[in-house]
Structures are given as C-alpha cells and as structure tokens.
Amino acid sequence: MPQPGASPVLPYPSTIALSSRTLNHLADRIRSHRNQRRSRWRRLNPGRQALLALAHLRNGDTYTRLAAGFEIGVSTAWRYVREAIALLAAAADDLATAMGRIRRLAYVTWTAR
Which residues are CB-contacts of 56 (< 8 A; sequence separation ≥ 6)? Predict the structure, then answer.
C-alpha cells in the first residue's frame, strides 16, 4: 500500500528523441512478424512494443523501469525487447553491403565539396 504523501507511479516518464518514421518502421515489422506467426493476443500492440524496444535501445532504460512504465511484467518487457532486436537484426544489411553503402555515401560527399 502506498505511503501517505508518496507520489504515484508515473506511466513511462521518459522522452525519446526519434522520428515517427523509425517507430512506424519497427511497429510494421512487429505487426508482420505477428501476422506471419499467427500470434495470439499480446499485452502491447505493435506500436507500444516498438516504443518499449526503442526506449530501451535509445535511452538504456532498464527492464524494470520499462515494465513499470508500460504496465507489463519484467520478463515480458525483456521478451518484447529481444523480439524487436531480432527483427531489426534480421532486416539489417550484411557487412559487405553496409560497407559498400558507406563507400558510396563517402564518395558522393567527398565529390560534392
């Protein structure tokens, strides 16, 4: 029972500097993954799961803090973050492709001087 005069738990009181495009991209990947697996009901919708994962990745929030802020269990927060990271990793370029892209961008930037 809360102590008299104690402040209530605030629902995820952190800010995250990221674009809505980033959030939507991850939410779309999560939604597709759930549809592909024919996943049953989940505590958080894909957008909230994406926000949870990005809060962890961007701000380094602990699973305990995330769980309290999103009103889920700590193990659920951990699973949701791990699932989102796996989806992002699966979509990432391999090293050779990434280095080729960096080379092209560096060349374009260098020649534009």
Answer: 63, 66, 77, 81
